[in-house]
Amino acid sequence: MGKITFIGPENLEKLEKGISENGFKPNTFLNKTPLPGVFGINLAVGWPLPLPYKKKYERLYEELTSFSPDLYVYPYWQTHITLMTLIDFKRHENPTDEELKCLRDPVPRIIDLIRPVIQDLSVINGPFEIITGLPILSQDAVFLPIINPTDEIRRLRKATHDALRILDLKEIIIPQTIHSTIGRFLNEPKGKRQEFHTRFKAIASNYHFGPATISEVLITSETKPYMIEGEILYKFKLGN
């Protein structure tokens, strides 16, 4: 396999221009004390990221945490790859018991509709490979760019979206890329933006994660922002 492009040069330039011109955006949820309860439902894989990444990720966590107190870095257990947001936690902060019941009501039907999608061999034919590149910095977050060479994730997103149309869910979000967010800003870092970015890239250059296998797809709930708390509502095993 030749050199892999995880993010195109135009998109990378756009991210860097945003940082240089506008700086970093502190996260509104992570700055709240106490951290609010929320409710969301996601279709996800890699919660947490695949086991072959664990040791390297934990080194990255330590290095980024030491690098800047203004950066909240996800511990390994919090890492995940969101394929689709089905119910957006950002729209359901501190829900009442009655609201929670209404939000949870569609879950059995969601599971029933997604099950045949997972079983469709034209969508997913068993466990599949992802390849994860160097950490990238944006105005809002630190993320790991990911590619899926055999295209299962694109097919799964499309087929799931089509299958769920009957439910008329109003909050579905399909990310434009495959990625795993691993850090968000608590504050605007002090000092020069370019210096911060240069130091970050020096750290990131040591952390190419490479290939890993995805063997299950998850439906998860999110009860604290960014999967600080949540649970697996259903697990679809891929293959026999």
Helix content: 25-40%
CATH fold field value: Cyclic Phosphodiesterase, Chain: A
**CATH homology group:** Cyclic phosphodiesterase
Global structural class: alpha+beta
Tally of distinct domains = 1
What is the average per-residue confidence, as pLDDT, rounded to a whole number? 95
What is the level 1 CATH name? Alpha Beta
| Main beta-sheet annotation | 6 strands, antiparallel
What is the strand content? 25-35%
**In sequence order, what are the helices and strands, one letter per element?**
HEHEEHHEEEHEHEEE
Contiguous low-pLDDT stretches (5 residues minimum) are: none
Euclidean distance between termini CA atoms: 28 Å
Q: Name the shape in a single word.
A: globular
Number of strands: 10
Radius of gyration computed on alpha carbons: 18 Å
Number of helices: 6
CATH architecture: Alpha-Beta Complex
Please give a structural write-up.
The protein is α+β, with helices and mostly antiparallel strands and 240 residues long. It is built from six helices and ten strands; from the N terminus they run H-E-H-E-E-H-H-E-E-E-H-E-H-E-E-E. The protein has helices spanning 9-22, 54-67, 97-104, 107-119, 152-164, 193-204, and strands at residues 40-45, 71-73, 81-87, 128-132, 136-137, 141-147, 178-185, 210-214, 216-224, 229-237. Strands 2, 4, 5, 6, 7 and 8 form a six-stranded antiparallel beta sheet that branches. It has a four-stranded antiparallel beta sheet with strand order 3-1-9-10. Helix 4 crosses helix 5 (152-164).
